[in-house]
Design goal:
- By secondary structure, the protein is α+β, with helices and mostly antiparallel strands.
- The protein has 3 domains: 6-73, Arc Repressor Mutant, subunit A (Orthogonal Bundle); 77-143, no CATH class; 150-284, Trna Endonuclease, Chain: A, domain 1 (3-Layer(aba) Sandwich), CATH 3.40.1350.10.
- Helices cover 44% and strands 20% of the residues.
- It has helices at 6-21, 26-32, 41-50, 66-73, 77-92, 104-110, 113-121, 130-143, 150-170, 177-180, 219-227, 251-255, and strands at residues 35-36, 39-40, 54-56, 62-64, 175-176, 188-193, 196-207, 214-218, 231-237, 244-250, 269-273, 282-284.
- The chain has a 6-stranded mixed sheet, sandwiched between helices. Strands 1-2 form a two-stranded antiparallel ribbon.
- Helix 1 packs across helix 3 (41-50), helix 4 packs antiparallel against helix 5 and helix 5 runs antiparallel to helix 7.
- It is elongated.
């Protein structure tokens, strides 16, 4: 399988720069350069072709593809590493990439040393900056073989709003648990209030639908809500060109709308209308 490392990525970037400045065939590249950076030139050429950063024109000259130009348009080294990872996952579909759907902690754990070093150098391991969160959501989307991250973006918007709300309410920055793992069954870990530091877990649901917004509750999320001593649901209604509506819902209120297992059947997910908690919503500026 094609392998990626910081050295290979840098070698590819160097080769893209060389071939954009002078006409060379792939054979001429291998004959002219024993190594590119600290990597064997043949490996660099193979990687650039496999990841669709370079191809040969009718005369056999290496030319940057649209993907190659997009990579080189990233001015900062960290951004080039991130784009290289996204392209690698889309083309190669390495087994470790499937862990992205469970959160970045799983990727860091299973990606291996070489990719792990790319993640570190690309500043993707600890930060929760918007552009970092967007990277991880895009990586998960590509791992699933799709680019549409619209629903994920809406969910992240709600989570960010909850982070802001909780920091204002408690005076402490809560932990964004959903970024690290989606297996916990909650999205944000806060505290009860400024005088009570007991942990409070929060499941966040968001919708931009103007009429009849709903949210989906998984069995894992519900079982987590039942198991934890202090747990809340935050509902964010975010219709465009209208005021944001926000509700804090107790587990006991959610329970009224959760189905029961009967016979040999077992429910896995339930769709619940926001309007079921209409009296709990308030409008925000």
């Amino acid at each position: 399988m094609l392998a990626l490392s910081p050295g290979v990525v840098q070698g590819c970037i160097d080769l893209l720069g060389i071939t954009s400045r002078q006409p060379l065939s792939f054979l001429e590249v291998v004959r002219s350069f024993r190594d590119i950076g600290n990597v064997d030139a043949s490996i660099v050429v193979e990687t650039c072709q496999a990841l669709n950063w370079l191809n040969a024109d009718e005369a056999g000259i290496a030319k940057l593809t649209d993907n190659g130009r997009r990579l080189m348009q990233q001015k900062a080294y960290e951004l080039r590493l991130r784009q290289a990872l996204l392209d690698f996952v889309e083309v190669v579909q390495p087994p470790w990439a499937q862990n992205a759907t469970f959160g970045r902690a799983r990727v860091v754990q299973f990606a291996g040393n070489a990719v792990g070093q790319i993640l570190v150098e690309a500043d993707l391991v600890a930060s929760t900056a918007d552009h970092v969160v967007s990277f991880w959501d895009e990586l998960a989307a590509r791992a699933r073989g799709r680019r549409d991250t619209r629903l994920t973006d809406i969910g992240r918007r709600g989570e960010r709003l909850t982070l802001e709300h909780e920091e204002k309410r408690t005076g402490r920055r809560p932990r964004w648990a959903a970024i690290e793992s989606n297996a916990d069954g909650y999205d944000v870990l806060s505290i009860v209030d400024q005088k009570d530091s007991r942990t409070l877990s929060i499941e966040v649901k968001a919708s931009t639908m103007k009429g009849g917004p709903t949210f989906h509750l998984t069995r894992n999320e519900w079982e987590t809500a039942q198991e934890r001593d202090l747990h809340l649901f935050h509902l964010w209604h975010l219709p465009s060109n209208e005021r944001t509506r926000f509700a804090v819902v107790l587990t006991e209120e959610i329970e009224k709308h959760v189905p029961k297992d009967t016979g040999d059947g077992e429910w896995l997910e339930v769709e619940i209308p926001f309007d079921s908690f209409d009296d709990l919503f308030s409008q925000l500026e």
